[in-house]
Amino acid sequence: MHFYDQIIHWYMENINYFTITLLMMIESTVIPLPSELVIPPAVYKALDSGQMHIAGIILCGTFGALLGASINYFVSRYVGRIIVYRFANSHLGHLFLVNQKKVEHAEQYFIKNGNSSTFIGRLIPGIRHLISIPAGLAKMNVKKFIFYTTLGAGLWNVCLAALGWLAFGQKDKLEQYYHQLTLGLVVLGAIFIIYLVYNGIKKNGKNKAKA
Prior knowledge:
Blueprint lengths: L2 H11 L3 H11 L11 H11 L4 H35 L2 H5 L4 H14 L3 H4 L11 H6 L4 H28 L1 H6 L1 H33 L1
């Protein structure tokens, strides 16, 4: 078995309700972990092995997303705008693909759409994992934040679960091109990590040039 096959095999073997919750919690913080790599494979495994239920996957994914969003919310609420923007302009923030422009965009979106933006924003790439930050800065009502976040995250996870279900319907084709797909995923993952490091170094160089 090739090395990249072992990675995918390990990943699929270790997908369970706990890891789904944990990964979706991480995905909803400032760490750029795509939820598309969590829910669809979990649903595929559930249909293939019967070890999990789709409803359980959606519930755990939604609970994890709420936990992660709550971290952003409460940190932003209690540390304030100055610290949040300082992080956005830091090397660590840039490494996580967070910058002042993205936070400002999320904040403007929140101001424009009000409390419902925590629901709508969960469905928009580029905003979904940051929308809880302006909610915290604005000291949005906690109960409303939990309600809208859960609703938006739940709907998003249902859509991702549907993708997993559709992928399982093409199981024969997926198995036929298994090696190509696994290699592609590993290559994309490596490129993504290289990009994060490059982006951090680039931002660091610009900041030193301005100093």
